[in-house]
Amino acid sequence: MTAVPLPYRVLDNRPETADTHTIVLRPVGTALPPFSPGQFAMVYAFGVGEIPVSVAGTHHGDLTHTIRGVGAVSRALCAARPGTRVGVRGPFGTGWDLEAAVGRDLLVVAGGLGLAPLRPLVRAAASQPRDHGRLNVLIGARTPGDLLYREEWQDWGRPYCQVTVDQPAPGWRGRVGVVTALLDQAAFAPHRTTAFVCGPEVMIRATARALLHRGVPARHIRVSLERNMHCATGHCGHCQLGPLLLCRDGPVVGYDRAEPLLAVREL
Amino acid sequence: MPSATAPPDTGSAGCVLDRDGMGALVRELRARGRTVIGPTVRDGAIVLAELESAEELPYGWGVELEGGHYRLRRRADAAAFAHSAGPQSWKNFLHPERVRQWTADRGPDGELTVRAEPPAAASFAFLGVRPCDLRAIQIQDRVMIGGPHRDDAYRERRTGAFLVVVECTEPGATCFCVSMGTGPAAQPGYDLALTEVLDETGHRFWARAGTARGAEVLDSLPRRPADEATQDRARRGVAEAAGRMGRTMPPVDLRDLLADTLEARRWDDVAARCLTCGNCTMACPTCFCTTSEDITDLTGDHAERWRRWESCYDLDFTHLPGGSVRTSARSRYRQWLTHKLGTWWDQFDSSGCVGCGRCIVWCPVAIDITEEAHALHQESLADRAGAADGAP
Ligand SMILES: Cc1cc2nc3c(=O)[nH]c(=O)nc-3n(C[C@H](O)[C@H](O)[C@H](O)COP(=O)(O)OP(=O)(O)OC[C@H]3O[C@@H](n4cnc5c(N)ncnc54)[C@H](O)[C@@H]3O)c2cc1C
Ligand code: SF4
Ligand code: SF4
């Protein structure tokens, strides 16, 4: 179902940070086809509008989304109480493609809300430790209050999680600084590593540059990009990034494709 | 594709319709329950509108076209199709400006019911599709129904449409279909192809069927077998038209040209002239971009999703919470041109431009896509020469 939303019911809504909520949606009737980590849904708040949101988790037919309230629709979804009906279309776009990284070291780098689409990837990777080498998860956020899923990090088990914030708050005993600084602490063999990166575009570029510098091949740096999207079906034209229609050819693309495009201002 | 059934063997010679035959064609298509859309004179332009009879065709009218300029003019003869692209294109019918996609209702317990818009039983016959515009329709097919997600409503309208192509014998000063490989001769995809001939022997149309349903319609019309003279005259008219194109594109791979000139100085030059009004995108027969609009009624329990045309020139087009991606006129004109001539290939494996010239005519400041492409080509040649000179 890609053209007309299917009704879903808000099962749970819990605040994640001051402006961000994680909601769990359960199909009222038919469920959408399964989503892969990295893919996104179009979520419709009744009478308000519809926005692209990554899957932050899937469990049977349920969908988990972590949403920051920045405008009309995202705020409406953050405020949706359990029981509220929303419309959902999907699944859309490319996934992280963990399968293609079998046997490789995995390096997950998240900036702020960028951890949301990476969460199902980390969980999948952590649950199949034999399929790949070392798993490192590097998490950056603006302040300690902006860190997502803190109570879950333990459950992720095996991965080696490292966290840093731009601005510390009273009581913060962790690291302070940009997420790329964590790369020096992580153990990975660059040429045998696949990196998964999501966050603000400047953070993605800085991280990818640092990884290239260390010898991770561009095509093994998978980044998730954001552009305006209306239809998610390749018909509205809003999500173009040069040759790419990001709803179809993205949001996850190899940095070999993304780098020359992101280098052109206002492309 | 709709009319993809193998062309029946009607003989490539086809047949000849006279002006009465044209009248019969419109009557026959209407009798088959089709809404016939064709060119007709209205408000000082040749527009596309529903025709009740072939007498509404613009017999005896031509147009004078230039950058930012469109004028109707009387012709010395009675030709019906001796004019080139007007302000609209067939996308106005196949991919209309505003469509409702679905409606949603919220019940007393908050339950949500979403209903897809039932497909309108549109059954168009397009009369007078120019070869460039046939290609434009096929290009929109690739976008709307050629990818992983299909637009069902578009497909309904498209498969229901009967296409009568009329070959071009009178290109306008802004036309460049030859450069784009789309005309002036009809290429496959039509139900019927016509070529208008006017000479001492009379006013007539050489007709060929491209599909079984085209042949069936043709068989029901008063017609005569195509004589050699009519066929020759028709072929010559089309061949001569190819030599009278008002514009050309630079003779290079346009896709490479655009990929290599993203930082050209020419973009600043055109940005100083472009008003970012979006007229070119509205007039272009292949431009497909849209915006979704969600509305509710006064009760607040009934909502609708509408889709309307949108232009990549709008500042909001690339809106993100942190601000729009393409804020400068330079980046927005560049997006349009590189999409039309370059990245369309990456996305849909075809050009996004068919050389109809509409964007040139309907640009209020006469910005000319061919002139811009030539300027980019010249700049890249000059830069390359400069680089070669500077080499040690
Ligand atoms: C592939 C993808 C995945 C995303 N995943 C998440 C996620 O997991 N969590 C999260 O919080 N946010 C995510 N976003 C960003 C989220 O879609 C925007 O924050 C949201 O669209 C803002 O809409 P709004 O109405 O709340 O705000 P406004 O800024 O007021 O937006 C106005 C309108 O712009 C349109 N619009 C379309 N696409 C976008 C876009 N990408 N950004 C902004 N406006 C847009 C919508 O119609 C929206 O109603 C994702 C974006 C993309 C492209
Ligand atoms: S870009 Fe201009 S010339 Fe090309 S198809 Fe569109 S309107 Fe016609
Ligand atoms: S090129 Fe002309 S028609 Fe197109 S946006 Fe600029 S001023 Fe308007």
UniProtKB/TrEMBL annotation, chain A:
Keyword tags: 2Fe-2S, Iron, Iron-sulfur, Metal-binding
The alphabetized list of GO BP terms reads:
pyrimidine nucleotide biosynthetic process
> Which cofactors does the annotated protein need, by name?
[2Fe-2S] cluster
**Organism whose genome encodes this protein:** Streptomyces palmae
Location of the FAD-binding FR-type domain? 3-98
Q: Where does [2Fe-2S] cluster bind?
A: C231, C236, C239, C247
Q: Which PANTHER family match?
A: DIHYDROOROTATE DEHYDROGENASE B (NAD(+)), ELECTRON TRANSFER SUBUNIT
Q: Read off the Pfam families from this record.
A: DHODB_Fe-S_bind (PF10418), NAD_binding_1 (PF00175)
Among InterPro entries, the record links this protein to: Cyt_c3_hydrogenase_gsu (IPR012165), Dihydroorotate_DH_Fe-S-bd (IPR019480), FAD-bd_FR_type (IPR017927), Flavoprot_Pyr_Nucl_cyt_Rdtase (IPR001709), FNR_nucleotide-bd (IPR039261), OxRdtase_FAD/NAD-bd (IPR001433), PyrK_electron_transfer (IPR050353), Riboflavin_synthase-like_b-brl (IPR017938)
Provide any one GO MF term from the record: oxidoreductase activity
Return the protein name.
Oxidoreductase
| Cofactor details (free text) | Binds 1 [2Fe-2S] cluster per subunit.
From TrEMBL, chain B:
SUPFAM superfamilies named in the record:
alpha-helical ferredoxin
Which of UniProt's keywords are assigned here?
A: Iron, Iron-sulfur, Metal-binding
Is the keyword Heme in the record? no
Q: Where is the 4Fe-4S ferredoxin-type domain?
A: 263-294, 344-372
Does the keyword field hold Hydrolase? Answer: no
Q: Which Pfam families match?
A: Fer4_22 (PF17179)
Q: Which domain of life is it from?
A: Bacteria
Tell me the InterPro entries matching this sequence.
4Fe4S_Fe-S-bd, 4Fe4S_Fe_S_CS
Q: Name one GO molecular function term.
A: metal ion binding
This chain belongs to which protein, by name?
A: 4Fe-4S ferredoxin
Classification from the root reads: Bacteria, Bacillati, Actinomycetota, Actinomycetes, Kitasatosporales
